[in-house]
Amino acid sequence: MEPKKNPKADLSRNTGLYFAVGLFAVMALTYFALEHKTYEGGNEYDISMNVDDDLDEEVPMTEQLKTPPPPPPPAAPEIIEVVEDEEEVEETVIESTESNEEEEVMEVEDVEVEEVDEDVDVPFAVIENVPVFPGCESESNKRACFNKMMQKHISKNFRYPEIAQEMGVQGRVSVMFTIQKDGSIGNVRMRGPDKNLEKEAARIISKLPRMTPGKQRGRAVRVPFSIPITFKLQ
């Protein structure tokens, strides 16, 4: 039987060639697609950054200063003269100050030592002979008599400040003073709740009479003394 189709019209005859051409075309398109590059339009860079390396200004050359060479050392003398020391120097002899057993020691006469009158303060509680308040000369216990007469003196001269009464101020004022070596009163100090009360306490102490000074080892000394004065409203 004869074939019905024309052999020239057989499409499957060149299939391999068509496949190879198509594959080559696809690979070519893929390659150009991957290698293709695009650039943005316009020059967006700073022209001021382009610095011309050619400088028209000439840089002066640094001159090198030449230092003068040091002066040559002085020439040594040809002849050295030796001068003899003709002056005689007296030697100083230092004698020993240590005593020998053979030397006699002179006896020294007795030296009178003068006692120094030390200006010291002896508290009232430890002094040997307490100051004597006027009127206590004949009393055997002069310390107790002194305290008794002090309380009597404060009660006799006590006066409550009017301004302190109006303000309702009250309290205790500690008074410290010193019985001097001549029996007078000095170095008066006060510490209390109000200046008016302190002022009144100082006035009371200023009226104390001159006393017989206290004595320590037979010498008159200064005797510090302190006493409280109480101001209390009725």
State the main characteristics:
234 residues, alpha+beta, Fusion Protein Consisting Of Minor Coat Protein, Glycine Rich Linker, Tola, And A His Tag, Chain: A, Domain 2, 3-stranded antiparallel sheet, two-stranded antiparallel sheet, 5 strands
Walk me through what this model shows.
Belongs to the TonB family. This protein has 234 residues and is of the alpha+beta class. The chain has a domain of 90 residues: Fusion Protein Consisting Of Minor Coat Protein, Glycine Rich Linker, Tola, And A His Tag, Chain: A, Domain 2. Helices cover 24% and strands 12% of the residues. Strand 1 and strand 2 form a beta hairpin. It starts with 14 loop residues before the first helix and ends with a strand. The model has no long low-confidence stretch (mean pLDDT 78).
Q: How many beta-strand elements?
A: 5
Kindly state the percentage of residues in helix: 10-25%
Give the CA-CA distance, first to last residue: 165 Å
Q: Main beta sheet: strand number and arrangement?
A: 3 strands, antiparallel
Look up the CATH topology of the domain at 142-231. Fusion Protein Consisting Of Minor Coat Protein, Glycine Rich Linker, Tola, And A His Tag, Chain: A, Domain 2
Question: How large, in whole angstroms, is the Cα Rg?
Answer: 64 Å
Mean pLDDT: 78
Question: What would you call the quaternary organization?
Answer: single chain
Summarize the structure.
One of its GO terms (biological process) is siderophore transport. It is found in: Cell inner membrane. Helix content is 24%, strand content 12%.
